[in-house]
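Checklist before submission:
- one chain only
- standard amino acids only
- sequence pasted in full

Submission:
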Amino acid sequence: MKLLAPAKVNIALSVEGKREDSYHELCTLMHTVDDLCDVVYMESADTLSVGFDISGMPSENTVTRAAKAYMRESGSYAADIRVLKRIPAEAGLGGGSADAAAVLRGMQRMYGLLSEEKLYQIALEVGADVPFCLHGQTAVCRGRGELMTPVVHKALPLVMVKDSYGISTARLFSRLNLPCAPVDTDAARRAYECGDMIALARHMNNSLESAAFAERPELALLKEELLSTGALGAVMTGSGSAMIGLYADFEASRLAGKMLEGHDFVHICSSEV
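Returned file contents:
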């Protein structure tokens, strides 16, 4: 079985406070990047085996956690899982979450033993972005990320760029000064639905940016570089360290992507959904 595990971006992200369970309350407009994917190969097996095409992956990761959780809840057999990594790590692009969601989908296709509700409960147990990655497309996500309101999915003229350094999500949240400046995710959603790139660019904001820029001042320069290539707006996705730029159309994004080729990672989103 071959499954694609697409990346995600946060077009707007608001951190709205600290919850009693020690997590943060979020509201974010999340969007699947359909043409940037890890690839997950799976087949049924008696014992769990997980491998990656890159070195340095910890033995306990989102893929193993997702598979073990499915096995625990369903009493099913295990799987032989191989993951080809194409989404950069510590980027805010949801690579680990996408892989976990793909594993849950694959286990369900092989064994079909859990309800949809239970599958999403497991997804949240594995990671805050995993429920969205399980759902895909575009949605406004609230709570820890599990309360989703779907939005009609459409391609966006985006360019994603990242250099070699990453940012620890846990460290970034620990540096966050609450309350954060408000981010109008509803306005971002309305602009997205209308296809108004100028209005959407105006509402591309992320509550985590100030803490990330303090941690990595180079990120602020990267944002300015995106804007200098003609981006209508630019924002850090998730907890970083990838930045995304939104352009007026796909021709403008393609030209901008060529100007940014010196960076470690550049991805120009396709016009195909």
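Reviewer check: The mean pLDDT is 94.
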